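User: I'm preparing a small set of examples for a lab meeting where we compare how different chains pack in three dimensions. I only have the primary sequence for this one, and I'd like the structure in token form so I can line it up with the others. Please keep the answer compact; I'll paste it straight into my notes.
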Amino acid sequence: MASTMNLNIGHIIDVILYILTSLGYMKLFEKCGISKRWAWIPLTKEYHLALCADREEEGKVYVGIRAFLYLHSIFTAIPHNFNNYILSIAVSVFGILAFAMNITELVYLTRIYTGLVKLFGKSRKWVPVLVLFEAIAVLYWGFNSDYKPTKRAADVSEIAAAKVFGTDIESIQEGLTVNIKERTAIDFFRKKVLLKDIHMCIPKGHMVLLLGGSGAGKTTYLNAITGYEPADAHILLGNNDVYLDYAEMMYDIGFVPQQDLMRGNDTVWLTLYDAATLRLPSSVSLGERNKRINAVLEQFGLTAVKDSLVEKLSGGQRKRLSIAMEFISDPTLFILDEPDSGLDGVVARNLFEKLRSIADEGKIVVVITHTPDRVIDLFDDVIVLAKDANKTGRLAWYGPVKDAYEFFGKTSMEEILLSINQKDEGGEGRADEFVSKYADRIGKMVG
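Assistant: Understood. Below is the structure token output for the 447-residue chain.
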């Protein structure tokens, strides 16, 4: 009887503390620019507290820990037959993990409240108070008008300094037209904008460098224009809509990933034959297929090693073969992700000269490389994607290489990249400045 009464009192106290804490969270979220409704939902409230404290990564881990502990509390509340040896072992292991998780939870909660204290400009002495007496402390912080954050949460639109050029540009028949309104994804209870307002036309015969720091959206951009991960966008290759005509357009787009997927014990010829079987339409005859394989072998300088095993090829030959596999379908749009990875300067130069010749055949070649300056003379244009204040990939430049130097006031691609990288990444943190400057430039050109 007494134990039942104590249990009920314990539940009542837990409910009261939950309500008080949620009220405090609600007012804190209001100050941080986060919707107050998140304060009442388990797990989401902890994640949004981390957002309020500018500790999103810690918040993701903390939510995972809390989810595990919730499951553990449910598991332990269920009666178990401890005469079952395996079950008793499982319960013991689960209990040890829960103990470790409780300690880890305390560590991450401390980190989150340390961030909150810093953001509100208060003494670090508040951290243990917030951790140990959370309900009362967050109520005080939430309802005290003197406690205000120095900046609002990262998902609040007011902090985005970059201007928006959101007008679709007119399509071109002989080339690629890209009008991406936005590309979004759901990440930990909220919508994230990965790309926003990317508009450009790339004519046939152009070789284009895709430049951008980590998280700027290069891969997301490529996935969007190829139709692999469609965005809220209108992508045209010539007169064909990449999204609406994807089944047909997939043969006209080639993508070479950084890592090849070739089997080492196949010959060069067999590797290309398998690629032709996959990449060419079924209507192509065997004779036409073999003719195309021979043409690609000759084009990429692989005829002499066509009977060699892939594992016996040099690094340069293997890279050329991986490119030839995608080029077998003779695509109009040809995209390569770091094709020079692992190659020395001379071999890399020869490879890019081959890509230049492909562009000169009337193809569109888009390349990502981490060493652009050693081959920049071979490119016509450069696309510069920058991560703005909202950590959204934005267009900071698209146009001729020589004009990019003048626009950014730099003399190399490496310097341009440093100028748009965030300060905590070793850059100058000028992404929003150049996104706004480019939006103004395009607005005047089309206005």
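A couple of notes for your slides: The beta strands are 175-187, 190-203, 207-212, 232-237, 240-241, 253-256, 333-337, 364-368, 381-387, 393-400. The chain has two domains: 2-158, 165-446.

User: Perfect, thanks.
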